[in-house]
Amino acid sequence: FLGAMSCHGELAKDRPRPRHLTEFYLWISLGGVLGGLWNALLAPLLFTSVAEYPIAIALCCVFLPFTNPDRSQRLFRFLPGLLAAGIGAFLVVSTLKGPVRGRPLHKERSFFGVLRVEVDLDGTHHQLMHGSTLHGKQALSPEMRDVPLMYYHPSGPIGQVFEDLAKRHPRAPVAVIGLGTGTLSTYAAPLQSMTFYEIDPAIVRIAEEPGYFTYLRDARARGVDLRIVLGDGRLKLALPPQGPKDLYAVMAVDAFSSDNIPIHLITKEAIEIYLRRLLPDGVLALHISNRYLRLRPVLGDLARSLGLAARVRDDVVLDDKIGKVGSTWVVMARTDEALGALRGDPRWVALPPDQGKRVWTDDFSDLLGVFRWH
Predict the structure, then answer these.
(1) What is the C-alpha separation between 226 and 220, in angstroms, rounded?
(2) Is the distance from CB of 298 to CB of 265 less than 8 angstroms?
(3) In what order do the strands lie in the sheet with 113-120?
(4) What's the start-to-end Cα distance of the chain, in Å?
(5) 321: number of Cβ within 10 Å
(6) How far apart are CA 232 and CA 234, in angstroms?
């Protein structure tokens, strides 16, 4: 922020006379285009991390002191600039190195972020990191390889959703927005149709690579009718269904960018699209675990505005021995009866709306209003 404000201040002081303003704004626009090309096209090809950000800060600190023509002021500004450049260099090194969570197997950067496949420090699991967030892991031992771990553990909320589905609608079609490591495919039965919607081709390559994760390969070996649709899940689901396999008994929204849920997947219009692709007694499950936003009231308002039954389970149980971490899931359905066994389970509590708040739509969202300030 300080670097950007300083650069904009220098730019404003260097503005020409009014008769040259057209040329001035042309060069500013050209600089914006070059910066956009660098960030969106070149940097993902050159770096496997978001290295351009701390590099830009370091360069800004190095060159800003030399923009002032007054030598005495320039010398005065050089020392703090040099110190700031040293801090920027430290940021560059730390960004390139990244946190040590395991032995790296693969690292790449796509338009949607930095992905790393690692062997954990114990050497017993493969895990997928997206940015600073662990997105899934799989045991390497054959007897544990098909057990869904972390947020998807059978004793957790989403495990309970699929358990209830297997009792009420065995082999009914299922959809998942967000592929990750493909962990949820472990819940699919032989001959059952499961469709993953994934926007990032790099995630698909990683999940399909048997040297990293085998959830998808093992599901196909069991006879699961597994499909992967590449593209934005909301846009793909907005298309008319092509057959009975495109109407789902359960739809799980599990899309994350690092630790953040894309807002366009949890607006009123998005929920309406999901409902059109659910069976009359289908269940919509949304994974809302994150460090930054309180999304319960947002989804409570959405459920109220659409007349849906909604419940939430906040599972705080963490057990490293069985590979489970806590997670929070919300389920929605057209009627309370459609929630099946979940509605009688005291762990699933009613999701109250946040009275007086505006419902999130494609035209309105309030991130500051739900931000966790502590």
Answers:
(1) 7
(2) no
(3) 102-110, 113-120, 125-130, 133-139
(4) 22
(5) 5
(6) 6
